[in-house]
Amino acid sequence: MRLLYLSLLLLLFISACQCHDNYKCSTEMLQVYFVGFAPGEADTVTIKRYANDGTYTQLIDSSVKWRDTPGSDTLFSGIFVEEGYDYALSLPGYTYKISDIKSEGKYYENIKHGCSDKTLPLCFNRLVSYRLDAAEHNVQHNSGNTEVPGIYITK
Q1: Residues 96, 97, 100, CA angle at the centre, nearest 5°?
Q2: What is the pTM assigned to this prediction?
């Protein structure tokens, strides 16, 4: 009887130390590219990041990016967007709105023994879609074209 009692107590102790944690996998960021703009048209961009509610009223932060050396037909902006925010990118004379950025939404359930072990798995969420000026776009990954996954804003 005593052995049965000790066995049950040991089993209860082991199961109490098992932790279940859900982690959202890391999410990629997309670079914004300006295509077909003359070098002077897209060399200064004001970026405003808003709460992800589609209203563009709750400003989180803003910054300005500029290019010192004009490039080719495609201007690599150095502007990256991520899931969880709405963005307004302003060029002289026009503002582009990027919203509803969605990822695959993968989570990883980490089941471990001993709650102090915090090793996180390597997992990754690709961005799958976004809205540019209210038009929905899908992000293309490894589709055989030469474009890097990103948001391509054309004039």
Answers
A1: 150
A2: 0.73
Convert the pLDDT of each residue in 56-100 to its tens digit.
999 999 999 876 555 555 566 678 999 999 999 999 889 999 999
Vertex 84, ends 32 and 61: CA angle to 5°?
Answer: 70
**36 with 71: CB under 8 angstroms?**
no
Q: State whether residue 89 is helix, strand or coil.
A: strand
What's the number of CA atoms in the CB half-sphere (13 Å) around residue 130?
28
- pLDDT, tens digit (0-9, with 9 covering 90-100), for 100-133: 999 988 877 665 545 555 555 667 788 999 999 9
Gyration radius from the chain CA atoms: 23
